[in-house]
Amino acid sequence: MDREAAKERIEWLSEEINRHNHQYYILSSPLISDTEFDHLLEELIRLETAYPEFLLPHSPTLQVGGDITKEFKQVKHKYPMMSLGNTYSEEDIRDFEDRIHKTIGDAVEYVCELKFDGVAIGLTYREGILVQAVTRGDGTAGDDVTNNVRTIRSIPLKLRGTGYPLEFEIRGEIFMPHASFEKLNEQRTDIGEEPFANPRNAASGSIKMQSSAEVAKRNLDCFLYYLPGDDLPFTTHYERLTAARSWGFKTSEFAVKCHSIDDIFDYLNSWNEGRKELPYDIDGVVIKVNSLRQQELLGYTAKSPRWAIAYKFKAERVTTTLLSVDFQVGRTGAVTPVANLKPVQLAGTVVKRASLHNADVIAALDIRIGDAVFVEKGGEIIPKIVGIDHAMRPPDSVALEFIKQCPECSAPLVRQAGESAWYCPNELGCPPQIKGKLEHFISRRAMNIDSLGEGKIEILYENGLLENPADLYDLDSDDLLGLKRTYSATQEKKEKKISFREKTVTNILNGIAASREVGFERVLFALGIRYVGETVAKKLTLHFRNIDNLMKADIITLTEVEEIGEKIAASVLAAFADHGFLQIIHRLMDAGLQFEIRESEIIRKSSKLDGLTFVVSGVFEKFSRDDLKKEIENHGGKNVGSISAKTSYLLAGENMGPEKRKKAEKLGIPIISENDFLAMIMQWRPLPETV
Ligand code: IVH
């Protein structure tokens, strides 16, 4: 394909993919299959890699992410980002309506909308292309999170239709749908990270991540609900919303015009119930005056518009009694206090238990057995205890003490500075930790031994056949045939019948044998080192190549790897300093598991960089640092962390540390730019001397 043809094809593919994104994410009516879509995207990525100069500012490949933002730039809002007056009472809504009538005099039309519970965002479009996305910040200035926002599939990178101004801003709410939230929390608990308390926290945490590729994986979504400014050709808010939809924005289908206070109350009441069916959180309803002329007449207070008000739903709250507190130990050893409550009906379900989170929460609530407690189900999915009715406290109650020893193995609990959770440190001897680690090891995303499950792991453990992952590889059919549960029948657990007949045993052993082929990155994830989730495992294996290199790495080499901070590095170091853990690794090596990245996992694109070593530093425009490093390896080169006389090139991006540059200059190492590098691997130009 010649350059001109490539340029045209890139333009066509960008348009076509954006069109399909709109069909899928806004109109919910895809025109092509996921596979066909993936093929288009793959072709575009291929062409953009070969012809980076033709990458468009609205290329859908930006939605995959890749850019890293070290520090978010502060941007002043053109129109201040105000908040809304809040109310919880119908009385206040009547007052609001009265006030408006007094100012306007004649009939007023309202638009009632859902109040989405997420993070406010202002998007600026110039000539139909998304050029900037800024958070609320303090209302006057916010953070420029454009790279991250570009990964949200429902936000158009290029507008459709006609009639939009040359430059304008549109505002809305970025949120995390329930499905994405639950998946994310599952993954976080898996690696011993604290789960997010609610989808709003998850959304605001995600939008401020440094790596846009990570943001892309969070599956955020966005509703647009407000177009500030007077340079738009419309007379009502509703018309603006309709126009926004025609330009490709996701606006809510539940915005409706209301003509009386009764209409408004009907809307409020129906959503107080209806919100439970939505796949995302709303925390209320917003009522806006529809006419823009009337909005102007009403004006603003210092903090909020007089033409709109937010009615917030009351969190549903009931009173019940705290019967007892259990302390549960998870796979990572974290001890979570769980309240057992007198069963009570709340928001459509019977609530019997509520999380008390950690020792600090218990202390802050000063909660005691027998207390009458208030339980709420707000935005959070798990009900929580929000307070105590002190007037009802039994006179003889005593303060609740957080346990000092593990309820499962009696080991004294420990707490690290700066952390709120107490941990049982007896990783290799505490039953729920042992079983949890084994379950993690065999899980689908780790070693994927699906012929074993929670129930079977439990039986193997109870029968003394399994204490750590390495024991799996010593099992034979004599061990397994005819195994049974050993615990007493009094244990109240509804279990499926599990039998270890011949066929089951063969399946288990085949599953274990097949896991020997699972790649190093999943083996590393399966080992269950705290904070080493799938992404971190992938980064570490790509960087260090084999377990020996990884075990030899010190804190400096570890933190040199992109996105590996001190917390993760310390956890990796602690794991490899543990004698018991090392023994397990050695046994797994002897059992034939993969502890080295396979040549086939490295895409061998060429040998152009054979024998060359690179130091990649700084922030790049077209590719993430990780992708550049991968490309170096794909073409036969090697990445190293620091500059020495043996380094062939310093590949320098923006904001590179001055020390690196100085050292390279002193040793006469050529410093090359991203473009020089791309030229090196793509167009067969001779290697540049220096820049
Ligand atoms: S209108 C000038 N509409 O709630 C008024 N806001 O405290 C612009 N929100 O800042 C806001 N859903 O972050 C508006 N349908 C909706 C909304 C909404 C959620 C958020 C937004 C706003 C805050 C008000």
Architecture overview:
The protein is α+β, with helices and mostly antiparallel strands. It folds into six domains: 3-64, Orthogonal Bundle (Helix Hairpins), CATH 1.10.287.610; 74-312, DNA ligase/mRNA capping enzyme (D-amino Acid Aminotransferase, Chain A, domain 1, 2-Layer Sandwich); 318-422, OB fold (Dihydrolipoamide Acetyltransferase, E2P) (Beta Barrel); 431-517, Orthogonal Bundle (DNA polymerase, domain 1); 520-599, DNA polymerase, domain 1 (Orthogonal Bundle); 603-682, BRCT domain (Rossmann fold), CATH 3.40.50. The chain is 36% helix and 18% strand. The protein contains 25 helices and 21 strands. Strands 12, 13, 14, 15, 16 and 17 form a six-stranded antiparallel beta sheet that branches. Helix 1 (3-26) packs antiparallel against helix 2 (34-50). The two termini are 30 Å apart. The model is unreliable at 488-495 and 683-691 (pLDDT under 50). The structure holds 2-(butylsulfanyl)adenosine (IVH). 2-(butylsulfanyl)adenosine (IVH) binds at residues 82-84, 113, 115-116, 120, 173, 225-226, 286, 305, 308, 310.
Describe the secondary structure blueprint for this structure:
Layout: H1 3-26, H2 34-50, E1 74-76, E2 85-87, H3 90-104, E3 110-116, E4 119-126, E5 129-135, E6 141-143, H4 146-149, E7 167-175, H5 178-190, H6 199-207, H7 212-217, E8 221-226, H8 237-246, E9 256-258, H9 261-274, E10 282-289, H10 292-298, E11 308-312, E12 316-329, E13 334-346, E14 349-355, H11 359-365, E15 372-377, E16 384-388, E17 422-423, H12 431-442, H13 454-462, H14 469-472, H15 477-480, H16 502-514, H17 520-526, H18 534-544, H19 547-552, H20 555-560, H21 566-576, H22 579-590, E18 613-617, H23 625-634, E19 638-639, E20 649-652, H24 658-667, E21 671-672, H25 674-682
Parallel strand pairs: 2-11, 18-19, 18-20, 20-21
Antiparallel strand pairs: 1-6, 3-9, 3-10, 4-5, 4-7, 7-8, 10-11, 12-13, 12-15, 13-14, 13-17, 15-16
Helix pairs in contact: 1-2, 17-18
The structure holds 2-(butylsulfanyl)adenosine.
